[in-house]
Amino acid sequence: RTHITPHPHHHAHNTHTPPDTLSPAPTMASNRSSHTVTCRTCRQVLFSKSDIIEHDVQDDKGRTRFKHKQRMASTPKEECTTYFTDQPEWLDGADMGGRLLCPNPQCQARVGTWKWDGMQCSCGHWITPAFGFLKSRVDIPVPVESIIVSPSIQPVQPIRPVQPVRRVVPCPSPSPSPSPSP
Hints:
By secondary structure, the protein is mostly beta strands. Helices cover 3% and strands 19% of the residues.
């Protein structure tokens, strides 16, 4: 197995930019932007939403071309389960492929896979080279302004608390006390 870890001195090889003007690595504070995609485990910024490579599925042929992927023509079209991007700046792509791990050294969660020779999306489209981030492993924050509240939805009425059932247990009748002997 190949484990890809971020190259600690990625910007050090840049000879065109003085070291004091390099942009800092994304921080936890900067991941609150609605334009970034973050690790679901630690919220580390992975890439920008604008880095996502869109692809169209024009027909259903791509799903049935690769039998080893068990694509069935009879199954309904699925939404893509992966975001594809160009090579992330924090990935050292010296190998031919491997796992995409979160660049946060304390996290290192698997967030996807990559292959220089490409891979097939769940919709059947072939992406080359492929840097695929699983939608189930990353988060895209939704701006509060974009949340639509439907006026047809009635507010939920609070439920009345259920009163405990009180059981009445009869007291045992007092036993007759022995009468004093004369």
